[in-house]
Specification:
297 residues, alpha+beta, Phosphorylase Kinase, domain 1, Transferase(Phosphotransferase), domain 1, 2 domains, 9-stranded mixed β-sheet, 13 strands, 25% strand, disordered N terminus
Length: 297
């Protein structure tokens, strides 16, 4: 075991324990073993700008895992190194049934691996594509689980900053479905309550007006992302759609959010209006979101 530490002028020191391990190729050419995990290089669960997530198995327990492989060559700046260590730190801080768990962190000569809890139904995006349009009742059940996970982050003063269907995984046990938040590469732990941020990080389609405009924003930014997801689930599309962040921002100004009367329940209508308010002052707080009649019922 050894500790990786990083300290920048803007951040505190993060210390993470990492287990060095040999990386060996198995007799089957598509299988790779690292420590006590074997993953299939053809079984890709997801890809990011710096990483690939493979389906793997713990050879001692037989449990499936997600193996997130990050090449050290991609960690070519202080910011990227910090982002990885920040992601690990947040994962190790939180244990929640609606947040994907981190099982192990491993270093080899060329890569760093995050061994993650495996979810067998893919992402919420996959689920919505498979199901087509879902009922409002089902949307409420999914939203309530996402909100539970988000509340776990908020209780630790963490903003996710990239809430979207691709970053919500789904796991099935019999007839039961559990939705879990993942990917904390853009997440930020606030140093104090009500701290404001300004960096434009995230996926433009799910960013609020403040982030799109590089204005100061708070944890209410994640509330807006949640509202976009809720709209997608009940209407099959986002409230604003464009080719780039600038067009989305212009649409928000030119076409304020409206909802056709009677298209959804009054509770859902109010939830969408409160979460998708352009101004942070008018937008629901996290306390209001988790206590909203839509999910409480």
């Amino acid at each position: 075991m050894f500790d990786v530490k990083l300290e920048t002028p803007q951040t505190k020191t993060i210390s993470v324990s990492v287990t060095p391990a040999p990386e060996t190729q198995q007799s089957t050419k598509d299988l790779t073993q690292v420590k006590n995990y074997i993953y299939d290089t053809k079984a890709i669960l997801g890809k990011g700008s710096m990483s690939i997530v493979y389906k793997g198995v713990d050879i001692y327990t037989g449990q499936f895992v997600g193996v997130k492989k990050i090449s050290k060559r991609t960690l070519n700046s202080e910011y990227l190194i910090y982002s990885l260590l920040n992601e690990i730190s947040i994962h190790t801080t939180i244990r929640h049934s609606n947040i994907v768990g981190l099982k192990d962190v491993i270093r080899s000569a060329n890569n760093i691996y995050l061994v993650l809890e495996y979810c067998n139904e893919g992402t919420l995006r996959d689920y919505l594509k498979k199901m087509g349009k879902i009922t409002e009742y089902e949307a409420k059940k999914i939203l309530s689980q996402i909100i539970e996970g988000m509340d776990g982050l908020i209780q630790k003063d963490i903003i996710h900053r990239d809430i979207k269907p691709e970053n919500i995984l789904c796991h099935r046990e019999g007839s039961s479905l559990t939705f879990k938040i993942c990917d904390f590469g853009f997440s930020k732990k606030l140093s104090e309550k009500n701290q404001l941020l300004q960096s434009s990080i995230g996926s433009p389609q799910y960013m609020d007006f403040q982030r799109l405009s590089s204005e100061e924003y708070s944890s209410k930014s994640d509330v807006f992302s949640l509202g976009i997801i809720a709209h997608e689930m009940v209407f099959g599309c986002p409230p604003w759609s464009a080719n780039n962040w600038h067009e989305i921002k212009c649409q928000m100004i030119a076409k304020p959010f409206k909802i056709e009367e009677g298209s959804v329940s009054k509770d859902m209508e109010n939830f969408l209006k409160r979460t998708l308010a352009i101004s942070e002052v008018d937008r629901a707080s996290w306390e209001e979101v988790k206590n909203h009649a839509l999910v409480k019922k």
